[in-house]
Amino acid sequence: MTPPAGGQIRPSDRGEIANRWRHRSDRRNGFEPDSAFYFAQASAVRGKEADLAVDPPPDLIIEVEVTSESLDRFPIFAAFGVPEVWRYDGSRVAFFRLEAGRYAESDCSSALPPLNAALATEFLQESRGPASYEWLRRVREWARTKR
Description:
By secondary structure, this protein is an alpha+beta fold. 36% of the residues lie in helices and 17% in strands. The protein has a five-stranded mixed sheet.
């Protein structure tokens, strides 16, 4: 499995990666994230089959939960050393950074530093509107101003 340029793990790849995490001999637990992305660590997995027994975990995991299940998985994410988790609970996006082995809520993303949780929530809510091309244009304009 090779992550595409930009480091995102395709949805069809998540199961394979999750299975590798779930079955690592040095970890008793595992997980299957909704989405996982490599940014700083992309070069470690680009162009080869990822092997999470030796390769780093993703830089960012995104969990979409309307229950508290993803919060229960935070200790597992931490055990794997995932530096950042975004969680959407049905009403807002929250960012969590790994600090001293535990996740602490953070307003700003370390994976995408210009983005804050309030803006991520706003973008997500706007994406549900009828004019998705307008939403995409707005997000692209915002990203261009942050380069």
